[in-house]
Write a structure and sequence with these properties.
heterodimer; A: 295 residues; 16 helices; 0% strand; B: 365 residues; mainly alpha; transmembrane (chain B); Carbohydrate ABC transporter permease (chain B); transmembrane helix (chain B); transport (chain B)
Chain lengths: 295, 365
């Protein structure tokens, strides 16, 4: 590789000195990018490959991207030897309800804060911004306390209710609603449409990009959520996938490392987000930068 | 900012709809207010109370049966010479080293990658951008499992190192501090028999030698994992900022004959200052909260060298049933995060102002 660069560079320099330097930098650029692509993606290759290996093969050749022999034993045990199908079901249920709830409730609140004139609006907005700034990690025990006190601890409600609205989502929606022109809403209102009708059938359809972004970050956040399930439920039958996976790893499997099984379960936890990432990349990227704005 | 709501309002006031808007506004906001009030605000208030008691999880902490201990839980963390303080101070030490490494490394890596990806000559930007960002969107628990495997004793990193003839450490059971190893390696101190001046005593129940351990080898795996997962997000922020830099500015500096380094130092970097500030702040806030990875990969082991305040607060409450102390630890952590953010804001204040633009928060959208 390096010999080839050397020759190319030399050629370029004899022809046009300026170009040579830019070719070297282009090549270096690609080399850096390819190296880091491997660093960032190869762990996923290892994850998938080893989930398809036998335990002995995974222990002997952890780096190899090709299982030999190919073995589905890990996945078989994931599906028939653990509660994973149940956790998968719980994760899907919780993620769908929370995502739908968040998108709807955050939009309502965002719209009110952006457009409706009511007493206490500024105070409420300030409160929402303040809540965004509260580090989640200090809420573990407090959340448990309130769920326990309300008698909701260890139930589906405990998994869903506390996270069905989020301050950051309200902030994103408010910013978006402020960016669209008022004139359309005014026309609708002059036609006699009520506030909710205007919101529902005029404003929301215009907010599609923001709604998609919010849907995606809610989905991803809820699907991956771990500490909340740790402090809100304790029965294995109520575990979500990340909680169940953490439980598998911390030793509920008994003897042996059982890496193909664990990696297989991790693959299953990764797939939904990976698929959505590939399809909706630009919304993910927008979401990341919205996160930057609110930060 | 003349806001849109007041524009509508002025036009509609004449029609007597102020009351209706008032009502509609509150109705729209009500669900979110109730949820956030009951599950964010109320819990914090409840926790403040619990941190003043020695509630052990039996019954309700609010009926007066939980013994009230005032600021005892907080005072104990700092002054009482017992295991609780030792664990707390150990967790602080671990997290300080963790922050001191993760924040600069992830920021530098994110900036470096953004600069390379932003290079005008390169093709396939979208692919590389996605490749670097992908780890950030995946489940922290799932990637922790993957890294458990990668760093396992017969794992991928081990075989990679052995290809170069290096025999790697047993990552997860190695509690030796990196700074100790370094000092030992340089021959400055004898790791097996550290100088008595350092082991004799030290602040807050840990010896100076303990404070100077550096992150343990086991903690390094968590550091590597976190840098790997978060750099992509920060790269995107830098990338967005780089794309906002006017092309004319770069061209002007090219015509002036500025070299690549000079261009970066005097044109690009000043323009990136608000983003740099943001990335450092988010990094500081995030790294003090490390929890998921510790829970899955190490549970604070080996020899408590991966214990962090977040994990310790969880463990104290839910495993030792000492909810008062656990909550007190989480409030101290809260305070640390607030103070760090304020200090950083204060340190960076002139530099951000120099850049001629506020942080992205105000500058964009």
């Amino acid at each position: 590789m390096s010999r080839r660069t050397g020759r190319r560079t030399a050629q370029a320099i004899t022809h046009r000195p300026g170009d040579g330097r830019s070719m070297v930098s282009t090549f270096t650029g690609y080399a850096v990018l390819v190296f880091f692509s491997l660093v960032f993606l190869y762990p996923f290759v290892i994850q998938i490959a080893n989930s398809l290996k036998t335990e002995a093969d995974a222990a002997a050749n952890p780096l190899s991207p090709i299982p030999s022999p190919l073995s589905l034993a890990g996945y078989e045990r994931v599906f028939f030897g653990t509660d994973l199908p149940l956790w998968l079901g719980n994760s899907i249920l919780v993620t769908v309800i929370v995502t739908v709830g968040r998108v709807f409730l955050d939009s309502l609140a965002g719209y009110a804060l952006a457009r409706l004139r009511f007493r206490g609006r500024r105070t409420m907005f300030a409160a929402i911004v303040a809540i965004i700034a509260v580090p989640g990690v200090v809420l573990f025990i407090p959340k448990f306390l309130v769920l326990n006190q309300l008698g909701l601890y260890n139930s589906y409600s405990a998994l869903i209710l506390p996270v069905i609205a989020d301050a950051a989502g309200v902030f994103i929606m408010k910013q978006f609603f402020e960016s669209i022109p008022v004139s359309v809403e005014e026309a609708a209102r002059i036609d006699g449409a009520g506030v909710f009708r205007t919101f529902w059938s005029v404003v929301l359809p215009m907010a599609r990009p923001a709604l998609i972004t919010l849907t995606i970050i809610s989905f991803q956040g809820t699907w991956n959520e771990f500490p909340h399930s740790l402090v809100s439920v304790q029965s294995p039958s109520l575990f979500t996938l990340p909680r169940g996976l953490a439980d598998l790893v911390s030793g509920s499997l008994g003897v042996g490392t059982q890496y193909p099984l664990k990696l297989g379960a991790a693959v299953l936890a990764t797939i939904p987000v990976a698929v959505i990432f590939v399809i909706f990349q630009r919304y993910f990227i927008r979401g990341a930068n919205e996160g930057a704005d609110k930060g | 900012m003349v806001d849109a709501a007041s524009a509508i309002d002025r036009r509609r006031l004449g029609r007597g709809s102020a009351t209706r808007q008032n009502l509609a506004g509150w109705l729209f906001l009500a669900p979110v207010v109730v949820i956030l009030g009951v599950f964010m605000l109320l819990p914090i208030l409840m926790a403040m109370w619990v941190s003043l008691t020695s509630w052990n999880g039996q019954g309700s902490p609010f009926t007066g049966r939980a013994p009230f201990v005032g600021l005892g839980n907080y005072v104990r963390l700092f002054t009482q010479d017992d295991l609780a303080r030792q664990d707390f101070m150990t967790s602080i030490r671990n997290n300080v080293y963790y922050v001191a490494i993760v924040v600069p490394v992830q920021t530098a890596l994110a900036l470096g990658l953004a600069l390379v990806v932003n290079g005008r000559m390169l093709k396939g930007k979208t692919f590389f951008r996605s490749a670097f960002f992908f780890p950030s969107v995946t489940s922290s628990v799932a990637v922790s499992v993957v890294f458990l495997f990668i760093f396992a004793n017969s794992g991928a990193v081990g075989s990679l190192l052995s290809m170069f003839g290096i025999s790697g450490p047993e990552w997860f059971s190695d509690s030796r501090g990196v700074l100790h190893l370094l000092l030992g390696g340089l021959g400055l101190v004898d790791g097996a028999a550290p100088p008595a001046a350092l082991t004799g005593g030290g602040p807050f129940g840990l010896t100076w030698w303990d404070w100077l351990s550096g992150p343990s080898v086991a903690m390094c795996t968590i550091i590597i994992l976190v840098v790997w997962t978060t750099s992509g997000t920060f790269m995107l922020m830098f990338l967005a900022a780089l794309q906002d830099i006017p092309v004319t500015l770069e061209e002007a500096s090219l015509i002036d004959g500025a070299g690549a380094w000079q261009r970066f130092r005097h044109v690009t970097l000043p323009m990136l200052r608000p983003t740099l500030f943001l990335v450092l702040t988010l990094g500081l806030i995030g790294t003090w909260q490390v929890f998921d990875q510790v829970y899955v990969m190490s549970q604070g082991n080996p020899a408590k060298t991966t214990l962090t305040p977040a994990y310790l607060s969880y463990r104290t409450a839910f495993r030792d049933f000492d909810y008062g102390s656990g909550t007190a630890i989480s409030f101290v952590l809260f305070l640390i995060i607030v103070v760090m953010t304020l200090v950083q804001r204060w340190v960076m204040r002139d530099r951000v102002a120099d850049a001629g633009a506020g942080p992205r928060k105000q500058g964009s959208s």
